[in-house]
Specification:
The structure is a single chain. The protein is built from 15 helices and 20 strands. The chain is an alpha+beta fold. It has an eight-stranded mixed β-sheet. It has a seven-stranded antiparallel β-sheet with strand order 2-11-10-5-4-3-6, with no helix packed on it. Strand 15 and strand 16 form a beta hairpin. The longest helix is centred in the last third of the chain and has 18 residues.
């Protein structure tokens, strides 16, 4: 069960080019308890997983926990200096009798706190923040067998940082985080995501598989069917592309009069055929007001609201977008928020939203990002723990203080758009069990992130490779 899967051993492996063809994939990965159990050995211990953000543990001695499957991991800050060497991660288990060292409070998202050492609540064995054992009661009773520190230290987990996030990996032989994240990391580096801070963060337990939840946010193809109100102010034809383990989606423009280099991103003009001075504001205001004040910023909305007053009628779309962004940049600078140096070409290349394999999604903008993460909930393939959070650039030391909030999946708690997305999840999970479901038919142009996800998942799991429709 712990055998590493070599992708070259899979005779049905697909290339990225194959994803442009009509494909289908099975439902075992969503519905089978045996498959969910196999993920514990074949997937989760082998991949880099986003476990939190650096701001979660800003001071030496701060810690958080991260749970996936049966594994619980402690991530602790051991030094104030910037960089990955300031953090340590280890399995949340005492080497003596296997008690968890830090309990997760009932009904809570995770544990967090501040300690200079960790003491097991069962027999009092103690450990420093490097994971080294510092106290064993009556150690002499073991007749020297515990003199080797390797027997009594905490089991280490690899930890590294990128974009302000803390990543962990339980596999000592896995590639480095940077290698694992490429080319997504290089495409997203210009956004300086590490300079953003939490705006809000919420979580909920859903009645669907973690993959069902995550895939609801992998493509804009669903907008026309799920978010019909958004069609009034924007065009939502999209592309989707694979980049190794990861995938990106963005908007396509069918009409030349709204073509701008940033047009694949959230920073774009609104609906074709409408005065871009008006449509740009209407689109940004729609997003901000219905997406829980995320996926754009108040600064961008306010700057867009002035376009009609600041520009003459007939101003070309690209000039409207350029003026709008320059105006918003100036407004942010006045309140102490600097923008990163991102060229239009970099914006276009980065697209709208990324899936970082396996379970992290980032919808990025110049000064903001809306992020999702989904994980198994116990061994039940019909449930998952789903999280969403917004990060944004704020003036120095003026970011809000946030905690994880468990929020029922209502419009009041999450905004109209996310509540509409949530309405699909359990329905898809149930629908895939129907005898009348003949199999998935993902869009070859707009849903390649989904098929690429299953292409890569099959490399780890050894089964479930998408196959060509005939």
């Amino acid at each position: 069960m712990n055998q590493r899967i070599d992708p070259t051993d899979l005779q049905t492996s697909l290339t990225e080019a194959d994803l442009a063809e009509p494909l289908t994939y099975g439902t075992e990965a969503f519905l089978s308890r045996d498959y969910a159990l196999a993920e514990k050995d074949l997937l989760w211990p082998k991949v880099w997983q986003q476990a939190g953000r650096i701001e979660d543990i800003p001071e030496t001695g701060d810690f958080i926990t991260y749970e996936v499957g049966d594994d619980s991991i402690i991530i602790a800050r051991i030094a104030a200096i910037p960089g990955p060497d300031s953090f340590r991660a280890y399995h949340n288990v005492c080497p003596h009798r296997g008690r968890r060292l830090i309990d997760i409070p009932a009904g809570q998202h995770s544990a967090k706190g501040h300690r200079r050492s960790i003491t097991c609540g069962f027999h009092g064995w103690s450990f420093d923040l490097d994971g080294q054992n510092t106290f064993i009661l009556d150690k002499q009773d073991w007749k020297g067998c515990l003199d080797d520190p390797a027997r009594t230290e905490l089991s280490p987990v690899r930890v590294d940082i990128w974009g302000g996030w803390l990543f962990v990996n339980m596999d000592a032989e896995a590639p480095s985080l940077r290698e694992y994240l490429e080319p997504a990391a290089s495409m997203l580096d210009p956004f300086e995501l590490e300079r953003m801070r939490y705006k809000w963060r919420q979580w909920v337990v859903f009645d669907c598989n973690w993959k069902t939840a995550l895939e609801a946010f992998m493509e804009p193809y669903h907008v026309a069917g799920t978010h019909t109100q958004m069609l009034e102010h924007g065009d939502y034809y999209s592309y989707s592309a694979a980049h190794g383990l990861h995938g990106v989606s963005g908007f396509d423009q069918r009409d030349a009069d709204v073509q701008v280099s940033e047009g694949s991103t959230i920073t774009r003009a609104g609906k074709a055929g409408v005065d871009p001075r008006i449509s740009t504001y209407e689109l940004q205001n729609e997003i901000y007001s219905t997406l829980n004040h995320a996926s754009t910023t108040a600064t961008l909305v306010t700057a867009a609201s002035r376009l009609v007053d600041e520009l003459p009628e007939g101003t070309p779309t690209d000039a409207v977008v350029a003026h709008w962004l320059a105006s918003a940049k100036s407004d942010d600078a006045a309140r102490g928020v600097d923008w990163p140096q991102i060229t239009p070409a970099q914006m276009g290349e980065a697209g709208l939203a990324w899936n970082i394999f396996p379970n992290m999604a980032v919808l990025q903008g110049i000064t903001f990002a809306l992020c999702y993460r989904a994980r198994p909930y116990g061994d039940d393939p019909d449930k998952c723990l789903f999280e969403a959070y917004a990060i944004e650039r704020f003036p120095e030391n003026e970011h809000p203080l946030t905690e994880w909030v468990r929020a029922d999946p209502t419009e009041e708690n999450w905004g109209l758009v996310l509540s509409q997305d949530f309405s699909n999840m359990a329905a898809v999970q149930k629908g895939m069990k129907s005898r009348g479901f003949r199999g998935t038919l993902p869009n070859p142009h707009q849903e390649q992130k989904v098929t690429n996800f299953h292409r890569n998942l099959a490399q780890f799991m050894g089964r479930g490779q998408p196959r060509r429709l005939r």
